[in-house]
């Protein structure tokens, strides 16, 4: 077997140096990826050249992009038999990999990827395979079933990927893996990734890989013992509000806040500045001279907070940095280790805080495994704690100003005003403090108390649907009209209660309603899981005929909003949009588009907008719950 290819590029060179397809580079720019991870930089050039690759890397190092990006750059867009097959040990990983392919193919029109795994009906898989897909991602058992049924034709396969091969060995799939490899054309390209290389995996590589390039990525597994690591479970509160509360209650000297994208760094810095914090952003778009000025301001104490991307913060060493806050969880464990290494330098103590949403739980566990250190859950500072700190700072500012002196001119003005208007000096001081405070409230208001079952009160608008009662023979006749003496029944639509937006929230329209059989719990559960919100923070929900209106916290992050558009509830995509304030007539609904209400798997896998195979039509709360990687 060969040594690592000399064609690999330094990770710092950026994705543009990897000669990926323009459409692929475009989506990487859209999401703000600035540079490849080590395994991506080491394997992508070889895979683009058609070389087989044997990669040893842990979960969380960026393996999926390492094989998905070159496959998408070389795939032919004719629709027919699968050109790429990815084998994964679990259904969760199959779904995750399929979603990654779909995300990276955003700017490749017509691309189709199909996940196939046990526990899912064969019908939708067969329909998609007959229609034609470019990439199949599946578990060994279900792939073997399709091969035995002759419903999966691998005769035109060009790319074969074995992901987490050692896990497939541990789960007893190694014979199935051999059978699948034997069913593939001999000229196909193979990439095998495994965290460890036990003898059976080595034998597979020797039998089925042709002169492979070997890549070994040892993820950083040590974090300084003098860095306290904590995570906050993002639920119910906007991340920006939570971060602001932490910044106010957590004593720190200087802090780096890590965000994934260039745009996010700039937006966060602006919002922190608006809250009176000395913050600035650095990212790949900032000139070197400006970067140096910002870092010098941080060193001099003129700045307290730096909002940065991974690339921009490389090599940063400032003694004042006592805290690192991961506003966005990193995509790989190595990035996390590098991030928190910006604090706790030269033996000093440091603090690292990580924000984790429910769908990122797997990455948190991967970080703990890679660093071999548990990360403790932190409790968000209470409103009372934040207010105590604000009062403490207010008093300290008075002490500091008195200590500086030079107040004689102001004292004379206060005495003069006191005599002219007969107003006590304490009231004048309070007025001046109010002027100095400006529009920003001195104290946080305690969170409004609301019942956890709020949605029951506002969601069950049963007057939009005729109620039914069981007759003696089991049939359900429609309820009789209110005026029994009136022989002419009123078939006009009943009036629905107007939707009033709750304070501090914004109303959105989602394209699922009564006629789809949806219940409040279906919607509340899906949005709570996908957006990382506790149900108590989801406001009024009004279910109409073929759509619903829902109040969500104002200022939802753009990426959450975009994700919610594609969430499936009762076999419908939410297609969430900001409500224009107009209500459709109670009895009128816009015509359905053909195929709109088919379950996602009946439309050829993930080609139509990242459906969620979990909970198809189940009508259970949390129908849009994301897959969990094991």
Q: What's the tally of helices?
A: 20
Question: What share of residues is helical?
Answer: 25-40%
How many domains in all? 4
Shape: globular
Name the CATH superfamily classification of the largest domain.
P-loop containing nucleotide triphosphate hydrolases
CATH architecture of the largest domain: 3-Layer(aba) Sandwich
Give Rg in angstroms: 29 Å
**Biggest pleated sheet:** 7 strands, parallel
Q: Determine and state the CATH class of the largest domain.
A: Alpha Beta
Global structural class: alpha/beta
Bin the strand percentage.
5-15%
How many extended strands? 20
Give the end-to-end Cα distance, rounded to a whole number of Å.
Answer: 31 Å
Pick out the low-confidence regions.
1-6, 448-494, 585-630
Predict the CATH topology of the largest domain.
Rossmann fold
Output mean pLDDT: 78
In which order are the strands of the major sheet placed? 3-4-2-5-6-1-7
Please explain how this structure is put together.
Helices cover 35% and strands 14% of the residues. The strands form 4 sheets. The chain has a 7-stranded parallel sheet with strand order 3-4-2-5-6-1-7, sandwiched between helices. Strands 10-11-9-12-13-8-14 form a 7-stranded parallel sheet. Strands 16-17-15-20 form a 4-stranded antiparallel sheet. The two termini are 31 Å apart. The protein is of the alpha/beta class and 630 residues long. The chain has 4 domains: 11-216, P-loop containing nucleotide triphosphate hydrolases (Rossmann fold); 227-381, Rossmann fold, CATH 3.40.50; 384-437, no CATH class; 452-468 and 494-630, no CATH class. It has helices at residues 22-31, 38-48, 63-74, 91-104, 122-131, 140-149, 165-170, 174-182, 199-208, 239-249, 262-274, 288-300, 333-340, 361-371, 383-404, 408-421, 425-437, 454-459, 520-531, 558-565, and strands at residues 53-56, 84-87, 113-116, 135-138, 159-162, 189-194, 213-216, 227-233, 254-258, 279-282, 305-308, 321-326, 350-356, 376-377, 505-510, 541-543, 548-553, 568-569, 572-573, 577-578. Strand 10 (279-282), helix 12 (288-300) and strand 11 form a beta-alpha-beta unit. Helix 3 crosses helix 4, helix 6 packs across helix 8 (174-182) and helix 10 packs across helix 15 (383-404). Mean pLDDT is 78; it is low at 1-6, 448-494 and 585-630. It is found in: Cytoplasm. A motif (Q motif) lies at residues 13-41. Belongs to the DEAD box helicase family. DeaD/CsdA subfamily. It catalyses: ATP + H2O = ADP + phosphate + H(+).
């Amino acid at each position: 077997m060969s040594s690592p290819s000399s064609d690999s590029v330094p990770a710092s060179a950026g994705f543009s140096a990897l000669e990926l397809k323009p459409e692929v580079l475009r989506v990487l720019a859209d999401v703000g990826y600035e540079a490849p991870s080590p395994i991506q930089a080491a394997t992508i050039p070889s895979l683009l050249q058609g070389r087989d690759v044997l990669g040893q890397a842990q979960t969380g190092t960026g393996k999926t992009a390492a094989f998905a990006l070159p496959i998408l750059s070389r795939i032919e867009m004719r629709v027919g038999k699968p050109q790429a097959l990815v084998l994964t040990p679990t259904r969760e990983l199959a779904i995750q990999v399929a979603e990654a392919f779909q995300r990276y193919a955003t700017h490749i029109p017509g691309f189709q990827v199909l996940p196939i795994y046990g526990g899912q009906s064969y019908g939708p898989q067969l329909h998609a395979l007959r229609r034609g897909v470019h990439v199949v991602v599946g578990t060994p058992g279900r792939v073997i079933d399709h091969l035995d049924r002759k419903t999966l034709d691998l005769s035109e396969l060009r790319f074969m990927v074995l992901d987490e091969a050692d896990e497939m060995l541990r789960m007893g799939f190694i014979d199935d893996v051999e059978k699948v490899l034997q069913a593939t054309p001999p000229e196909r390209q193979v990439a095998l990734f495994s965290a460890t290389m036990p003898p059976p995996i080595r034998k597979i590589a020797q039998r089925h890989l042709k002169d492979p390039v070997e890549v070994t990525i040892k993820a950083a597994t040590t974090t300084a013992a003098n860095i306290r690591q904590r995570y906050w479970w993002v639920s119910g509160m906007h991340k920006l509000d939570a971060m602001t509360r932490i910044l106010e209650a957590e004593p720190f000297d200087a802090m780096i806040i890590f965000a994934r994208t260039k745009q996010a760094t700039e937006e966060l810095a602006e919002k922190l500045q608006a809250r009176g914090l000395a913050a600035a952003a650095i990212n790949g778009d900032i000139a070197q001279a400006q970067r140096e000025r910002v870092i010098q301001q941080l060193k001099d104490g003129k700045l307290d907070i730096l909002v940065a991307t991974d690339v921009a913060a490389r090599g940063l060493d400032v003694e004042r940095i006592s805290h690192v806050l991961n506003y966005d969880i990193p995509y790989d464990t190595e990035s996390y280790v590098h991030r928190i290494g910006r604090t706790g330098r030269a033996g000093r103590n440091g603090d690292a805080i990580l924000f984790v949403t429910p769908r990122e739980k797997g990455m948190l566990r991967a970080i703990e495994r890679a660093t071999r250190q548990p990360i403790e859950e932190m409790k968000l500072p209470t409103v009372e704690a934040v207010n105590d700190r604000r009062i403490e700072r207010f008093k300290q500012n008075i002490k500091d100003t008195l200590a500086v002196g030079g107040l004689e001119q102001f004292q004379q003005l206060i005495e003069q005003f006191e005599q002219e208007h007969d107003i006590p000096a304490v009231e004048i001081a309070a007025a001046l403090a109010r002027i100095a405070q400006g529009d920003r409230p001195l104290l946080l208001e305690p969170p409004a108390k609301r019942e956890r079952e709020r949605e029951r009160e506002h969601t069950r608008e049963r007057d939009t649907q005729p109620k039914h009662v069981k007759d003696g023979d089991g049939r359900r006749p429609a309820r009789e009209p209110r005026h029994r003496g009136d022989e002419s029944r009123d078939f006009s639509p009943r009036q629905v209660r107007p939707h009033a937006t709750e304070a501090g929230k914004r109303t959105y329209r989602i394209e699922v309603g009564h006629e789809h059989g949806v219940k409040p719990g279906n919607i509340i559960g899906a949005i709570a899981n996908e957006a990382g919100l506790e149900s108590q923070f989801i406001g009024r929900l009004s279910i109409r005929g073929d759509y619903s209106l829902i109040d969500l916290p104002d200022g939802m992050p753009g990426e959450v909003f975009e994700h919610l558009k594609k969430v499936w509830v009762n076999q419908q995509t939410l297609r969430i949009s900001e409500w224009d304030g107009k209500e459709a007539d109670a009895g009128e609904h816009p015509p359905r588009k053909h195929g709109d209400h088919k379950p996602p798997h009946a439309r050829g896998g993930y080609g139509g907008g990242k459906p969620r195979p979990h909970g198809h039509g189940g009508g259970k709360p949390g129908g849009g719950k994301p897959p969990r990687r094991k």
